[in-house]
């Protein structure tokens, strides 16, 4: 069976980004992000503006299958890291709202696992995974539980920070479960990005319920790293 061609938006993104390359920025960006993949040197504000124009001009994918192919083509076929950022922007674009449900989580799992660095993982989690979890808790919550014990540090991090934007809508039982699966002594509990994620998740929820977070930190004092505790209690 013939492989379908990449959706037109893929070529539009690549050709649209190329003229904005800034060699003077690219080396510093790659060094800062410790990225094996090179950068074009486009700043974040410029990326947003450029992509806004590209997506407005289209044509945007007209079906879920075409959209997923476009996201994967940009992400997996990226020659520059900005193409991966563009893939995540397309994944979260308003034109894809109708496809943001639990059946899309395997796509995001792939992006997180293969991205395997905080810039890609955190963006995918906040802009793609988190809205699905909030809107489809019955189907997405078990997936977050699975990710929290996966043999993949980045999926674990994603599960921990998956409720950062949820505020009062945070599921405290899920928050507790994904943190307890990753405290000191667990498979990835000593990793910086896990310790930081735990502290970040607790600090964010402390804006809503500081008393609960204080109690959680006290109850889990022997299981939380110093970094997690400092982050969690920063504003308490």
UniProtKB/TrEMBL annotation:
Entry-linked InterPro entries: ARM-type_fold, DNA_alkylation
Pfam families: DNA_alkylation (PF08713)
Name of this protein: DNA alkylation repair enzyme
Organism this protein belongs to: Nostocoides australiense Ben110
Top-level taxonomy: Bacteria, Bacillati, Actinomycetota, Actinomycetes, Micrococcales
């Amino acid at each position: 069976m013939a492989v379908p061609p990449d959706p037109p938006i893929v070529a539009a993104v690549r050709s649209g980004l190329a003229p904005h390359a800034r060699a003077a920025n690219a080396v510093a960006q790659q060094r800062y992000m410790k990225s094996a993949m090179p950068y074009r040197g486009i700043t974040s504000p410029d990326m947003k503006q450029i992509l806004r124009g590209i997506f407005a001009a289209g044509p945007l994918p007209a079906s879920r299958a075409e959209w997923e192919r476009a996201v994967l083509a940009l992400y997996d076929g990226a020659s520059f890291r900005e193409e991966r950022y563009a893939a995540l922007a397309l994944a979260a674009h308003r034109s894809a709202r109708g496809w943001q449900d639990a059946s899309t989580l395997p796509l995001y799992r792939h992006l997180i696992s293969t991205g395997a660095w905080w810039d890609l993982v955190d963006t995918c989690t906040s802009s793609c995974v988190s809205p699905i979890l909030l809107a489809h808790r019955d189907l997405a919550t078990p997936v977050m539980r699975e990710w929290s014990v996966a043999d993949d540090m980045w999926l674990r991090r994603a599960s921990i920070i998956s409720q950062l934007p949820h505020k009062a809508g945070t599921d405290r039982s899920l928050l507790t479960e994904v943190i307890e699966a990753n405290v000191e002594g667990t498979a990835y509990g000593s990793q910086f990005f896990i310790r930081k994620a735990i502290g970040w998740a607790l600090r964010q929820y402390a804006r809503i319920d500081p008393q609960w977070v204080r109690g959680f930190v006290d109850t889990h004092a022997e299981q939380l790293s110093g970094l997690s505790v400092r982050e969690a209690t920063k504003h308490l």
